[in-house]
Amino acid sequence: LHPRMASCAITRAPLPCSTPAPRCRTPVTHARALPVAARHPLRRVLGRHRPWGLPTLPARAPLRLETSFPVSHDRNLPKQDLLARMQGMKIFCVGDIVGQPGRRIFKSVVANLKAKGEIQAVVVNGENAAAGRGITGPLADELFDAGADAITLGDHTWDQKEAVNLLANDRRVVRPANFGTGCPGRGWTEVQTPIGAFVVLNLIGRTFLNPADNPFETADTLLKGPIPRDKPVIVDIHAEATSEKIALGRFLDGRVSAVFGTHTHVPTADAKILPNGTGYITDVGMCGPENSVLGRCVEPILKRFMTGMPTKFDIAPGPAILGGCIFDIDKATRRCTAVVPVQVREEA
Q1: Quick one: pLDDT at residue 17?
Q2: What is the pLDDT of residues 245-276, one digit of tens each?
C-alpha cells in the first residue's frame, strides 16, 4: 500500500503522512465527512453503518445522487463533474421493482432526479411490482405517474391475468420480444418524450429460465427490420446468466445505444462503454427491500434452503434500495457517451 493512500481499516480516515495525498479520479467519501455517531468504530462493527456501501439517504430528503464507477470517453473527468457535463439524452434505466417498498423508493428517487434535471427519461422493469409477481394495470399507472416513460417485463410477465389486457392496450408496457409469436403484446416500443423519441427493446435470456426464442436472432431480426434506425435504442436483457448478458452486449455493440441487464436483483460493477459506442451494464440491481433475500423475507428463504420444504416468500418490510444506471446518449450519433451506475438507500 502506497503511504499516501494509507487509511484506517475501521474509520477509513486517512492516516498521517509526510506529504499530501494526491487527488484521486474517483474521490472516496471518508469517515470525517459522515456524522460523528456514524464514525464510531463500534457502530461499524455492529453493522449500524455500512462501511463499504453508499451513505444512507432519507427517502424524502433532498436527494444527493450517489454514483459508483462512472464511465466516460473523457477518462480524466472527475465523477462529480460527469453528470453536470452530460449534454445528450439522460436516460435512467431502473432495475426490477419489488412490491410496495420498491414502488415507494422509485417514486421518491425519480421525482427528485427529474426535478433536479439529472435525468430526462426513465425505463423501469416492473415484472415484480405486484407483490413480487407480475404487474397490473393500476400498478403500471402508478409507475407512469411516478415518472416512468416505459415499463419492461420478464419471466413473471403472465403471473397476473390482467397483464394480457395491459399489454394489449398500453404501448408503453413491453414484454420480452423473444416470447412466442402467439403471445399478446409487443416486445419493443417507440417512446415519445420532451427530449425526443427513443426505442425500448425487451429481451429475455434462455439459460436457467423457461424456454423462449433465441434473443440474439430476435434482436438481429428486429434491428434489421421494423425498429427505426434513426432513433436511440435501449435494450433490457432480462436474464439469469451473466455470460449470456455480456455476450448479447457484445453482439449488439454499435447497433444499439445501451444494454442494461435485469432479473438477478444484484447490481454488477462492470458499467462500461463498449468499443463501438454502446453503453453496457450486466445488471442494475433492484428497487426493493434491502434487508432481504432478493426482496423477500429472510427467514422463509433460510427455511427453504435448510429443509427443502415449500415456503411462502413474502415481500420483506423495511427500508428499500434503488439500483439503476444513467446512460448519456448523443442524439446525433445515437452512441453512449457516459454511463453512471446509481444506488440510493432509504433511511431505516
Answers
A1: 43
A2: 999 999 999 999 999 999 999 999 999 999 99
Measure the CA–CA gap between 188 and 196, rounded to whole angstroms. 17
Separation CA 270–CA 69 (nearest Å): 8
| DSSP run (H or E) holding 42 | helix 41-45
40 is catalytic: no
From edge to edge, which strands make up the β-sheet containing 233-238? Answer: 188-193, 196-204, 233-238, 258-262, 279-281, 272-273
Q: Of 49, 156, 238, 265, which is the active-site residue?
A: 156
Task: Measure the CA dihedral 185/189/194/196, to 10°.
Answer: -170
Among 63-67, 157-161, 232-236, 295-299, the range scoring the smallest mean pLDDT is 63-67
Higher per-residue pLDDT: 79 or 54:
79
Q: Taking every pair of C-alpha atoms in the chain, what is the biggest distance, in angstroms? A: 71
- SS3 state of residue 138: helix
